[in-house]
Specification:
Blueprint (H helix, E strand, L loop, with lengths): L1 E4 L6 E5 L6 E6 L10 H16 L5 E6 L3 E3 L4 H10 L6 H16 L4 E5 L2 E3 L1 H8 L2 E5 L3 E3 L13 H9 L1 H10 L3 E2 H7 L4 E3 L4 H13 L3 H14 L4 H15 L3 H11 L10
Helix pairs in contact: 1-3, 3-4, 4-5, 5-6, 9-10
C-alpha cells in the first residue's frame, strides 16, 4: 500500500490500496494513545477526507486505524487544557472538526467502509456510524461515553444511533453508557461483518474493492436517497427518487449495464 501524509504530520495517513488504486485508505495513526482525537489528528482527518472526496479517481474509501483501538474519542488531556484556557471556546472543535468529519464521511460521493479493529468510543463510534459499512473485529468494544463526562452526543450520534438501532435502544446506550461488544453490535445492526481482529483491514479492503468496481454515481445517489428517506415525507422522497433516476438514466454505467443484461454479460462499470 502506497502511503502519503494526510495533511497534518503523521497523525493521519492517506494511502492507495496496492491491489486497487481506486480504493483510498485513510488511517488514524496515534496507536500509543488509542487514536484519541487531538487537534492535529482532527485537522489531518478533515484534510484527508476532503481530498479523497474530491478525487474522482477514488471510487471507494476505507477508514482504518493503527493499533488495537479504532478511536476512543476526544483526547481528554488536550480537552482539559482547552477548558482551563477558556471554557467558552473549548467546544469550538465540534463545529470546526467533528461536524466536518462526519459530514464528509456521510456525504462522501462514494462508499466508505470502516475497519473497526478495536474500541470505538464517543466520537469514534460516531465516525464509524457515519461510514456506510462497518467491518468489526470480534474483540472490538463500543460505548457512547458522553454522559459519563457530563456531555450529550456529538459526531452525529443523536441521529445515526437512532437510525441504526431505534429510539429505545439508542436512549439506553446514551443514558446508561454501558459498553457493548462486537456480537451485540452485530445484533443491534451496527456491524456489517464481524471477523477475527487480524482480518479486519483485509476484509474491509475486499468490500471496498468490490464497491470500487461498481456504479459510483449510483452509489452516491443511493447514499443521498437513504439519508433523505430517513427524515423526509413520502412525497418528497418520491420526487427526489424520480429526479435521481432521471440523472442516473443518462450515465454511461446505466447504459452499459442494460446492454450487458440483455446480452447476458457482466457489466464493466467505470463510475461514469
Amino acid at each position: 500500500m502506497e502511503t502519503n501524509r494526510g495533511g497534518s504530520g503523521d497523525a493521519v495517513l492517506l494511502a492507495r490500496d496496492g491491489q486497487d488504486a481506486a480504493v483510498a485508505v485513510v488511517t488514524l495513526n496515534r496507536p500509543d494513545r488509542r487514536n484519541a482525537l487531538t487537534v492535529e489528528l482532527k485537522d489531518g482527518l478533515v484534510a484527508a477526507l476532503n481530498r479523497v472526496a474530491s478525487d474522482e479517481s477514488v471510487r471507494a474509501v476505507v477508514l482504518a486505524a493503527e493499533g488495537k483501538s479504532f478511536c476512543v474519542g476526544q483526547d481528554l488531556a488536550e480537552h482539559a487544557e482547552a477548558l482551563r484556557r477558556d471554557p467558552d471556546t473549548a467546544f469550538a472543535t465540534v463545529a470546526q472538526h467533528y461536524n466536518p468529519i462526519v459530514r464528509a464521511l456521510a456525504t462522501m460521493p462514494k462508499p466508505v467502509v470502516a475497519a473497526v479493529g478495536g474500541a470505538a468510543v464517543g466520537a469514534g463510534l460516531g465516525f464509524a456510524l457515519a461510514c456506510d459499512l462497518r467491518v468489526v473485529a470480534d474483540t472490538a468494544t463500543f460505548s457512547t461515553a458522553f454522559a459519563a463526562i457530563g456531555l450529550t452526543a456529538d459526531s452525529g450520534l443523536s441521529a445515526s444511533l437512532v437510525h441504526a438501532v431505534g429510539h429505545a435502544r439508542a436512549t439506553e446506550l446514551m443514558l446508561l453508557g454501558e459498553p457493548f461488544d462486537a456480537a451485540q453490535a452485530q445484533a443491534f445492526g451496527l456491524a456489517t461483518r464481524v471477523v477475527p481482529a487480524g482480518e479486519v483491514l483485509e476484509t474491509a479492503l475486499g468490500l471496498a474493492r468490490r464497491l470500487a468496481a461498481g456504479p459510483t454515481r449510483a452509489y452516491a445517489e443511493i447514499k443521498e436517497a437513504l439519508a433523505r428517506g430517513a427524515v423526509s415525507p413520502l412525497e418528497a422522497v418520491l420526487d427526489a427518487e424520480a429526479a435521481a433516476q432521471a440523472r442516473l438514466g443518462t450515465t454511461k454505467d446505466h447504459r452499459v449495464a442494460v446492454e450487458a443484461f440483455l446480452a447476458k454479460q457482466r457489466p464493466a462499470f467505470e463510475g461514469a
